[in-house]
Amino acid sequence: MLICASATAIGGVSPISLRWYLATSEEIYDVPGIRHVHPNGTLQIFHIPPSSFSKLIHDNTYYCTAENPSGRIRSQDVHIKAVLREPYTVRVEDQKAMRGNVAVFKCIIPTSVEAYITVVSWEKDTMSINAEMRSRSSARSCTRVQAASHVT
Questions:
Q1: In terms of pTM, does the model score above 0.90?
Q2: Class for domain 3-81, per CATH?
């Protein structure tokens, strides 16, 4: 992940000073190898390993100001949320049901990635299951294909 947010101010009165702040109005500072504000006003957030994740830097709202002798203006908020590439496992919640009754299976997705994951299909023994397909045992059929699926 490399994020660059540019700030540009055009005005007839020089010099123009560009500064970045957190939503709390705290002026931000450079964190070597993690976050840097360039002299041209670009805010750069570098690629990081998961162990260096900081909510203060990588999941926060920033804004920029431009100031000259004529006054000061504030940008719109920019929300930055880092998404870390790390292994995760999706699993199916164990269920019990009597033969002939309905069992509801739920896809369990880790909370760290659930906002970015969509269940698009279900599989049984590496075979895709859809609403029209019956399983090989013909004792069960899938009636919905979603994050929660009903099997009879």
A1: no
A2: mainly beta
Strand (E) or helix (H) holding 56: helix 55-58
Which of 129, 134, 127 minimizes the C-alpha distance to 145? Answer: 129
Q: In angstroms, rounded to a whole number, what is the distance separating the alpha carbons of residues 77 and 134?
A: 51
**Using one digit for the tens of pLDDT, what is the confidence trace for 80-130?**
888 777 788 888 888 888 888 888 888 888 887 787 788 887 887 777 776
The pair of structure tokens assigned to 93 is 């919640």
Q: Where in the chain is the domain with CATH 2.60.40.10?
A: 3-81
CA trace torsion 95, 98, 102, 107 (10° rounding): 10
CB 105 within 8 A of CB 123: no
